Amino acid sequence: MQRCAAMDPYLKGSKVLVTDEAESSTLQNKGSFGRPVRGGELHLDLLEAVYLAENDRIEVREGRRGGVLSWTDLMKRGISEPGHFLGRYVVYRDLRNRGLVVRIGGEGGFLIYPRGTKGLKAKPSGWIYVHSEDDKVTIGALHNKVDENDGMRIETLAAIFDSDWDVTFYNIRIPGIALEGKEDSVSERIDGIEMELILPDGSGAIAKGGAVGNTGPLIGSPVKDVLLLSREETMLLRERHGEGVDETDPRWMVYRDLVSKGHRVRSGLKYGCHFRVYAGKTPADHSTHLVQCSDPKRKVSWEELSRSIRLCHSVRKRMIYAFPEKESTEGGEKVGGISYLELEWTRP
Q: What CATH number does domain 5-79 carry, 3.40.1170.20, 3.40.50.10490, 1.10.10.10, 3.30.530.20?
């Protein structure tokens, strides 16, 4: 029996309406496509319709009784609308082709569900924000999104499409316990270390004492019977001796926070960042994290972020962005704690 053309899915505005109850049920139950409405209809987002048309699962008409639209015609409709339609489509297509259930979310992103999920009431496992490689973001805004999604107990991911229309995924999270450490180990790191000379430009100091031996010191770099201290190590000793330090310097504040949590912190220049962080207490241990002190309001491109994340992945370390938080007070603002954000290459 030939199917009535009036029962075919048809384009209405930016949605595709599926009126045939059997077809609606199949699309919803075998793939979780669309949003059911009263009367047995199913409303498909244009992204979903383009994907289904590409895979020959539906034919879409121009209006209820119009002619059949080709896949290219549907794609043109999407591209003509504001937003990264083509970029969002290649992300959606990539996720769907790998068996993930994907629903259209806010801010141009997607909610993803575990493979095999059925029904609208299932809990999503993650929220994917879609960006072009040329888009710019701030570390502070990413941190806020993670904080919000953590409250709903779902992961935060970014999908970045490049000029070749390939997609790279990043997991974005607050590292938490990985950077907590033990907060009782600062004094043992600097006991017995006394500064002999602070460099005139304040970039470091020469000191004596402390744990200088075959395994090296817990802070500083040994030369003969003295320690060469970095700027931050010098500030740490000065603070412990009751001297004033610059409480507005973000780099120093991040360093102090990391050390107070039991980590051994060294220069990260060779990896293109501020610090490399050791979870262990001796130089024999390998560093586990690279930390970049960031302005939470500075806009950075995904190309810039990608360089650091890719390097970390290749050397088996974790890339952390850190910034002091500002708290509002009656007298204005003051610096509160340090916030950390981890970005890691992933494949959902």
A: 3.40.1170.20
